[in-house]
Amino acid sequence: MIPYKNWYNMILLTYQLSNMKNKIISFKTFERLFDSFAPRKAAEFEFSGVIGNTRIAKKQIKKIALTLDLTSDSVQEALRKKSDCLVAFHAPDSLSKRNLWQDRIKKLADGKITLYKAHLRLNFCKEGVNHVLCSMCGFDAIPLTFLFEDKFTVVGGVYMITGTYSLQEILRKLKAISPPEIRVFNHKKNSRYHTILIASGSGFKKEFFETFRPDAIISGEVKHSTIYLAKEYGATLIEATHWATEDRPLKIISQTLEKELGIPVEYISLPLKMKTYQK
Q: Is residue 69 pLDDT above 60, yes or no?
């Protein structure tokens, strides 16, 4: 027999889900609530907002889809789910020429789905991708402030992990985001790292070496030139794939957004198929 308390919780959850499914918000309300969660001012230097036909953004919204990348698969899934708005983490800023982006956006417009780009603001905000990445991996970390491209002050674009870790201890923690592979550059055997930075995506920024002088940086995607830059600074680079450092945190964020917006937010994950070949 199910205890009364459990029955009550089940009934309450069913009621809340039913209310959420029936709730409708205006696009203006969506933007206000979304900005409260991920303030536009967190990354004012980057475009964020509606892409394509802005007229369809004036409609009512009762279901949102969130995805890492604007691909044919994510578009098809948003159409299948009958979403009213697709929030894409990675998407173009504008549509000056006919290309694959435009074809995908046209399909969304034909399906009366508003495309909304939210990239760095969703990364840097208080409960954004970088914060969730640290939490998922079990790292206690604090957001740092730095000057990006010598002109933009950014808060939360990178976090500093508190504590000291060996490489093996870091790799064990990174299993929480299930990276398809991890590459390590400039590691010295038996090293313990004291100043460790972590950022999602392409987070191996030159500003980090110059400003924070880290022993190690954990991120998703490293450029060839950055490997040599890190060597000059004596820093180890731990690359856990762009996909894993952003896709898994975004799925958690979709659940938080659902509570903030009060309407269903479904995450469209795009699994990355990868196989590493070695000599």
A: yes
